[in-house]
Specification:
The complex is a heterodimer of chains A (309) and B (303).
Chain A lengths: L4 H15 L1 H24 L12 H4 L6 H8 L1 H19 L2 H11 L4 H12 L6 H11 L6 H8 L11 H20 L1 H8 L3 H9 L4 H26 L6 H7 L5 H4 L2 H11 L3 H29 L6
Helix pairs in contact in A: 4-17, 5-10, 6-10, 6-11, 7-10, 11-13, 13-17, 16-17
Chain B lengths: L1 H9 L5 H32 L3 H5 L13 H7 L2 H33 L6 H13 L4 H10 L17 H14 L2 H9 L4 H12 L1 H17 L2 H6 L8 H10 L2 H4 L5 H44 L3
Membrane topology (chain B): Multi-pass membrane protein
Pfam family, one (chain B): BPD_transp_1
Keywords (chain B): Cell membrane, Membrane, Transmembrane, Transmembrane helix, Transport
Chain lengths: 309, 303
Amino acid sequence: MNSSPAFVRRRRAAGSIARNWGLYLLLLPAVTLLICFTYKPMYGVIIAFKDYSPAFGISGSPWAGFKYFEKYFASYQFEITMKNTLFISLYSFATFPIPIAFALLVNQMRVERFRRFFQTVTYMPHFISTVVLVGLMLILLSPGNGLVGHVYRLFGAEAPNLMGSSALFSSVYVWSDVWQQTGWNSIIFLAALSAIDPSLYEAAKVDGANRWQNVWNIDVPMLMPTAVTLLILRIGGLLGVGFEKVYLMQNNLNISGSEVISTYVYKIGLLSAQYSFSAAINLFNTVINFVLLLLVNHIARRYSDNSLW
Amino acid sequence: MELAASAIRRAPKRRSSDSLLEGLLYVWAAFVLLITLYPLYFIVIASFSDPSAVGNGQVWVWPKGFTLEGYKELLNHSNIWVGYRNTIFYTAVGTGIGLAVNLSAAYALSRKDLFGRKAITLFFLFTMFFNGGLIPTFLTIRDFGLYNSFWVMVLPFAVGVFDIIVARTFFQNSIPADLWESAQIDGCGNLRYFFQFVLPLSKAVVSVLALWIAVGHWNSYFGALIYLKDESLYPLQLVLRNILITNQMQSSMGSGEAAEIALRLANLMRYSVIIVSTIPIMLAYPFVQKHFNQGVMIGAVKQ
């Protein structure tokens, strides 16, 4: 009789798997899709180090070392795309407190019906598609015959060309995001606020605190754990400036302020079919993101009780 | 602002600074409502107005020179309706596939007695931070023969890890563990238990995921931009992009008076096409808002 611990463990595992075969069947579709369409492309990343040609396939193409990384670092686009990507992400990162402040204010609304109406209205823009949003911006922000142009003329001023300016691109991008997402992003903070134990407020009242002191001394600290967790996740995507909206907002007039890594990857890869070059730029971006994520998680672990792992 | 006043009246004795701040809060709220709603309202009234009145800035509160031309013009563009039909197909099929794939995986991962649960969960979570990137993914899709097909829009990217986490949390917290115990004693297997007991008890999370996935499909254009070539497969958002942003229509115009009229119609149509494409979501939204909030709450539960 073999009864070594390892053998027992193996037998127990086999028994458990056999007993729960139905669960593995339930996992099968999702696992299969991930293997085919997420993990298999991860192997394909090696074309960043190869001279990929469709004739030889991924494994058959000759190695090229760091040729394409060097090519990117040496290209004049490197500086532009890095600068724009960093600037736009830091800029939108700076708007992180806005949904928190928004939630704190909504939480103070005492008229239940008005509050519900207010929330319904402010969530709504979240459901406008990116294409329609950019279409709206082109219509409304036009200095000639758009809403912004008319408002400026009411005050006798000349409207700036918001959609056709490199310098203003990041501002238009970030603030239109704030307009669209603030209500929606505040939901999670409102949920955290509604979970606060009312006895805390009672105790503060006994100590003579007024409502606004309560916000500062109770609400804000109670939101911190949620905020830190979301913050770490945000930083993990710091260099992943969304392709979708930037690409739609791009035009010849603002290109020097709007070309970011993801749009450059798209143009190099799919519009001019330089597969290896494009994959290299993308990989570089991923590595930087990952390092940032590790770094921030490490800092969060050292200085607060919250971290991702 | 009567709302604010009544709130102050009803409230127990307050310091005057308190009620001043209360008043300011509602002033701020009114301002937020204005900047959120007015742009959308403007599009609605502009879509019923004479284009030149809109262009001259005469349209502020009510439509000027009421006309339905913009909506009539939509009927002349068959590609909009083809896109509409495609989007409805993609959304229906994609939501069905997404629900099936994500709910079943989420249930399996919610079971503490699943052998290898930690490793499999990691296998899923890993993909939240890493993927092959644009080009390797594109090459993979092409190798599978999915490029420029109906299926590329609904199948390859059906797994939503965040959705799985939300559903898993829900199953863990809301399905009593002893239910499985007693079902087992009655000789009920995992699969039957999932379909017969778990799903009927999980209407809340099923509807949340259905909404998320459906809205995602309705609004997405990126997949279509990359993986579709034939216009007959284009979803509505891609057609909209050509009308609203790249203005492909204007390239096919000549000059002179006919072109002038065509250009005016094109401008007018931009308003009506926004309305027609966004209305389904906006109409559905107030009815399902409750579920959405619930979903975010489920997702917010700490693991």
